[in-house]
Q: What sequence folds into this?
C-alpha cells in the first residue's frame, strides 16, 4: 500500500496518541524547566484588567463562579487571577455560583488565594461566599430587584442581612462591577441579557469564558461587556498582567495559565498539521483520479 | 486470545510495571498529607438577637470540640518530620491518598475509551452518571430548598438544626391569632410564605411525573416555567440582543473623537463599517422570505463570506478550549499523581 | 380538559405576561419577585425530579435484566451512596459560628465525605469526559476538514490564523514583519478577524436568534403556540 493509502486509512488511535504526546511533552518540559512563553496582551484582556483597576479600593465586586470541573482547566486560572487582582486592590469580593459545582470552585479559589496570600481579609467583611442558588436566569432577574431574596444565607450559614459586606446592597446594580467566570448556561451571556443591559450602564461587567463560548460574547464587547478573557490565551495574558502589577517573583502556582500555553502551542500546531495533511491526501487523490 | 485483548494485557502489564518502578525512584508518587487542627468552643454570652456567641477555649473547657484535617504539601510533611521525627501533627492521609489514586484510575479508565470501548470506561461512566445526579440533588436540597423553602415553611426546625441565624417570624400561618396586618413585617412575611407554599405545591405536582398515572399534573408547574421564561426572554432578548446590538453596530461607525485626520478617521471607522456591512449582509443571508437575487443576493453572498470567517474563528477557539481541558488532566496525572514534575514546588 | 389544557395555558399566559409587564411597571415588581422565588425553588425541585427519573430508569433496567443491567446497578449504587452521604451531611462538623446546630456545617469542603466524592470522583470524571473531546476534534479535523470550495477554504484559513495567532507560534512566524504591516502579524490578524468579521457574523446570529425568541415567546403568551402543552400537559 502506498504512503498515501496508508495515511488515508490511518487508525485514528495514532492521532489520539499524537495528541496525547504533543500535550504531555511540553507539560513535562515546562514542568521540569519552569520555562514560559512571553505573552502579548490583547485589547479584550487589557479591558478586563482596566475595569478591575477602575474600581476604587474598599468597593464591593460581585464574583460569579458559573462553571464546573469540566471547564476548570480553562477557567480556574482566570478565576484565581481575578480574585487575586481584586484582593490585591483591596476590593471586597462577594462570591456566588449559579452552577451547582461552582460553589466548590469558589471555595477552592478562596482557599488558594485569600486564605493563602491575603489572610488579613475577614470573612463576611472583606469577602464572602454566598454559595449556589438554583433558578438560572430567573435568579438573575430576582437579584436585580432583591439581592437578599436571591441569596438569603451564606456558605457558613449566616443570614445575609447580618453580613457587613452586604450592608446597603439592595440589588445587583449596587455593585459597580460584576465579574463572571462562566462556561455556558447560565453564564456570561445571560448576565449581559438579564442584568447588565437593563442596568442602564450602572453595572459594568467583565467575563472570563471558555474558548467555545468566546465567539458568542464577542458582539457584546465593549458596549455591554467591558472586557473578556478569551480562553486559555486570555487567562495567560491576564495572569502576566496581574503578576506584573503585584510585582516580585510570583509563586509558581500563579503561573499556571502561562505554563499551559506550552501544550496549547503544540496542540494547535498538531491540529494545523493534521488539517494540512488531510487536505494534501484529499487533493492528491482527487488529482490522481482526474488523471 | 484476540489481538485487542492481547494489547490490553500488554499495556496494563507495562503500565503497572512502570508504576511500581516509579514508586521506588526518588520521592515515590501519589500521596496526600494533612495537618491536624482543633476547634474547641464554649459559649461567650449572647448576641443582640439572643443567639449564643461562641469563643475558642482550651479543649478541656470546650462545650463543642472536634478535630480538623487540612491538606498540606509533601514539603510541609518533610519539614515537620525533619524538625521532629515521628511527629503526629502532619501525617499521611489515607482517605485522601486512596482518593487520589481512585481519581487517577478513573481518569485513565475514561481515557481508555480512546483505544476501544471497554468495561472500565463503562464502569466509570456509570459512576459519573449516578454521582452527578445525586450530587446535584443534594446541593439543590441543602443550598436552595433548606434556606428558602423549608426556611419559610418550617422556620423553627431550620433554625434549630441548620441555620441558627434564621430570623423566625412572629407570625404563623397555622395560627391566625398571631397575624397583625399593622405590623410592617407582616405583609412581606405573608408574601414570602405564600410564594413558598405555591412553590411547594408546584414542586409536588412536578414530581408527579414519576408516578405511573396522572403525568398531566406536572403540566401546571411546567406551564409556569414556560410562561415565565417566555415572558422575560421576550423583553430581554429584544432589549439586549436586538436594540442594544443594533445601537452598538451604529455607534461603531460614527467617529467620536474630534480633530482626527482623514487618514486616521478612515482607519478608525473602517472596523465599524466592516461590522455594519457584515451584520447587514449576514442578516440578508438569513432572510429566507425574500429570494436571494439582485442586491439582496449580492449582500447574502457577502454575508456567507463573513459567516465562513466567523465559523473558522469559532473552530479555532473551540480547539483552544478542548486542548486546555486535556492539558489540565495530563498535568494532574504527571504532577499530582505520578510526581514526575513539580511546577508548583510542592515537594521541593 | 380544563385541568389538562385550559389551566396550564392560563398559568403560562399569566406568568409570562407578569414577567413581561413587570419589567416596565415597577409597582408590579413584588409580584415578579415572588414569581422568581417560586421559579428558583421549583428549579431546585427539578434536580430531585432528574434524580428520581434516573432512579426509575435504572431500577427498571435492573428489574428487567436488560442488557448492561450491571452498569445500571453501578449507577444506582453510586447514586445512593452519594445521596445518603450528602443528604445526611455525614461526617460534617457543625459551623464554628453555630456549633449548637448539628447540620449547620458546610459539607462542600474537602474534609467531608461529600467533599471527598466531589474531589476524587466527580471532579476528575467530569473533567476527563470533556478532555476526551480534544482527541476527537483532532481526528475529525484530519478526516473531514477539507477546502472543497472557496467558502470552506476561507473557513480553513481563518481557523489556521486563529490557531497560530493565539499561541506563541504567531509571534515566532510573523514577528519579523515591519511596523507598518503589523496588522498582518498573526496575533493581530487573529484579533482582527474575531473582533471585526467574527463580531459581525456572531452579531447577526444574535439578532436573528433574538427575533426568533421574541416571536416564539409572543406566540406562547398569546396562546398561539401550544406545542409544549400538547406534549407535556395533555398526556
A:
Amino acid at each position: 500500500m502506498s504512503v498515501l493509502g496508508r495515511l488515508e486509512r490511518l487508525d485514528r488511535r495514532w492521532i489520539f496518541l499524537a495528541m496525547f504526546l504533543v500535550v504531555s511533552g511540553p507539560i513535562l518540559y515546562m514542568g521540569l524547566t519552569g520555562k514560559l512563553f512571553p505573552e502579548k496582551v490583547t485589547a479584550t484582556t487589557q479591558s478586563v484588567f482596566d475595569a478591575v483597576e477602575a474600581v476604587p479600593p474598599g468597593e464591593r465586586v460581585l464574583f460569579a463562579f458559573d462553571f464546573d470541573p469540566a471547564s476548570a482547566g480553562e477557567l480556574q486560572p482566570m478565576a484565581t487571577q481575578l480574585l487575586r487582582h481584586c484582593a490585591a486592590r483591596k476590593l471586597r469580593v462577594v462570591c456566588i455560583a449559579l452552577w451547582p459545582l461552582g460553589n466548590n470552585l469558589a471555595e477552592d479559589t478562596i482557599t488558594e488565594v485569600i486564605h493563602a496570600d491575603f489572610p488579613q481579609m475577614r470573612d463576611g467583611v472583606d469577602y464572602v461566599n454566598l454559595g449556589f442558588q438554583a433558578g438560572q436566569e430567573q435568579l438573575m432577574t430576582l437579584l436585580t430587584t432583591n439581592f437578599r431574596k436571591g441569596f438569603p444565607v451564606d456558605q457558613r450559614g449566616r443570614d445575609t442581612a447580618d453580613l457587613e459586606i452586604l450592608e446597603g446592597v439592595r440589588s445587583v446594580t449596587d455593585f459597580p462591577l460584576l465579574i463572571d467566570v462562566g462556561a455556558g448556561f447560565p453564564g456570561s451571556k445571560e448576565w449581559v441579557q438579564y442584568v447588565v443591559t437593563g442596568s442602564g450602564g450602572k453595572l459594568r461587567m467583565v467575563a472570563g469564558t471558555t474558548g467555545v463560548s468566546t465567539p458568542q460574547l464577542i458582539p457584546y464587547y465593549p458596549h455591554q461587556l467591558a472586557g473578556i478573557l478569551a480562553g486559555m490565551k486570555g487567562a495567560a495574558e491576564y495572569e502576566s498582567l496581574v503578576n506584573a502589577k503585584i510585582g516580585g517573583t510570583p509563586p509558581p502556582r500563579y503561573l499556571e495559565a502561562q505554563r499551559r500555553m506550552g501544550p496549547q502551542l503544540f496542540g494547535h500546531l498538531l491540529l494545523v498539521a493534521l488539517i494540512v495533511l488531510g487536505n494534501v491526501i484529499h487533493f492528491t487523490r482527487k488529482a490522481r483520479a482526474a488523471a | 486470545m484476540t489481538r485487542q485483548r492481547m494489547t490490553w494485557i500488554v499495556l496494563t502489564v507495562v503500565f503497572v510495571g512502570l508504576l511500581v518502578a516509579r514508586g521506588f525512584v526518588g520521592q515515590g508518587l501519589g500521596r496526600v498529607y494533612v495537618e491536624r487542627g482543633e476547634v474547641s468552643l464554649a459559649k461567650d454570652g449572647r448576641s443582640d438577637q439572643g443567639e449564643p456567641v461562641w469563643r475558642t477555649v482550651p479543649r478541656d473547657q470546650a462545650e463543642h470540640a472536634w478535630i480538623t484535617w487540612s491538606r498540606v504539601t509533601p514539603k510541609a510533611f518533610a519539614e515537620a518530620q525533619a524538625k521532629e521525627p515521628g511527629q503526629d501533627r502532619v501525617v499521611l492521609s489515607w482517605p485522601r491518598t486512596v482518593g487520589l489514586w481512585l481519581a487517577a484510575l478513573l481518569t485513565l479508565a475514561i481515557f481508555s475509551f480512546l483505544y476501544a470501548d471497554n468495561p472500565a470506561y463503562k464502569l466509570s461512566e456509570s459512576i459519573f452518571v449516578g454521582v452527578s445526579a445525586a450530587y446535584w440533588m443534594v446541593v439543590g436540597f441543602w443550598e436552595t430548598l433548606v434556606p428558602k423553602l423549608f426556611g419559610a415553611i418550617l422556620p423553627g426546625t431550620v433554625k434549630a438544626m441548620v441555620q441558627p441565624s434564621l430570623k423566625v417570624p412572629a407570625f404563623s400561618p397555622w395560627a391566625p391569632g398571631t397575624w397583625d396586618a399593622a405590623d410592617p413585617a407582616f405583609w412581606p412575611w405573608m408574601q414570602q410564605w405564600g410564594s413558598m407554599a405555591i412553590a411547594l405545591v408546584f414542586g409536588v405536582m412536578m414530581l408527579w411525573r414519576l408516578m405511573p398515572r396522572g403525568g398531566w399534573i406536572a403540566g401546571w408547574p411546567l406551564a409556569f416555567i414556560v410562561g415565565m421564561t417566555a415572558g422575560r426572554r421576550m423583553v430581554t432578548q429584544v432589549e439586549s440582543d436586538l436594540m442594544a446590538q443594533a445601537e452598538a453596530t451604529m455607534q461603531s461607525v460614527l467617529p467620536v473623537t474630534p480633530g482626527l485626520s482623514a487618514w486616521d478617521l478612515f482607519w478608525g471607522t473602517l472596523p465599524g463599517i466592516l461590522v455594519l456591512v457584515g451584520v447587514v449582509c449576514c442578516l440578508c443571508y438569513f432572510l429566507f422570505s425574500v429570494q436571494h437575487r439582485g442586491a439582496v443576493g449580492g449582500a447574502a453572498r457577502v454575508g456567507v463570506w463573513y459567516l465562513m470567517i466567523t465559523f473558522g474563528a469559532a473552530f479555532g477557539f473551540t480547539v483552544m478550549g478542548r486542548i486546555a481541558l486535556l492539558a489540565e488532566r495530563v498535568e494532574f496525572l504527571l504532577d499530582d499523581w505520578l510526581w514526575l514534575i513539580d511546577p508548583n514546588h510542592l515537594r521541593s | 380538559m380544563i385541568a389538562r389544557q385550559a389551566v396550564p395555558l392560563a398559568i403560562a399566559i399569566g406568568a409570562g405576561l407578569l414577567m413581561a409587564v413587570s419589567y416596565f411597571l415597577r409597582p408590579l415588581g413584588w409580584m415578579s419577585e415572588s414569581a422568581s422565588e417560586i421559579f428558583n425553588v421549583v428549579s431546585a425541585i427539578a434536580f430531585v425530579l432528574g434524580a428520581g427519573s434516573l432512579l426509575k430508569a435504572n431500577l427498571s433496567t435492573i428489574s428487567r435484566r436488560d442488557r448492561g443491567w450491571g452498569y445500571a446497578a453501578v449507577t444506582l449504587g453510586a447514586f445512593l451512596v452519594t445521596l445518603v452521604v450528602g443528604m445526611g451531611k455525614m461526617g460534617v462538623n457543625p459551623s464554628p459560628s453555630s456549633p449548637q446546630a448539628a447540620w449547620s456545617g458546610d459539607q462542600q469542603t474537602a474534609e467531608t465525605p461529600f467533599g471527598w466524592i466531589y474531589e476524587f470522583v466527580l471532579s476528575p470524571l467530569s473533567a476527563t469526559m470533556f478532555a476526551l473531546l480534544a482527541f476527537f476534534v483532532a481526528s475529525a479535523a484530519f478526516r473531514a476538514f477539507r477546502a472543497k470550495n472557496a467558502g470552506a477554504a476561507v473557513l480553513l484559513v481563518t481557523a489556521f490564523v486563529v490557531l497560530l495567532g493565539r499561541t506563541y507560534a504567531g509571534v515566532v512566524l510573523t514577528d519579523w514583519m515591519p511596523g507598518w504591516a503589523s496588522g498582518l502579524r498573526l496575533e493581530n490578524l487573529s484579533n482582527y478577524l474575531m473582533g471585526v468579521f467574527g463580531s459581525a457574523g456572531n452579531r447577526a446570529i444574535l439578532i436573528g436568534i433574538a427575533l426568533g425568541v421574541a416571536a416564539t415567546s409572543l406566540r406562547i403568551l398569546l396562546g398561539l403556540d401550544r406545542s409544549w402543552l400538547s406534549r407535556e400537559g395533555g398526556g
User: Anything to note?
Assistant: The mean pLDDT of chain C is 92.
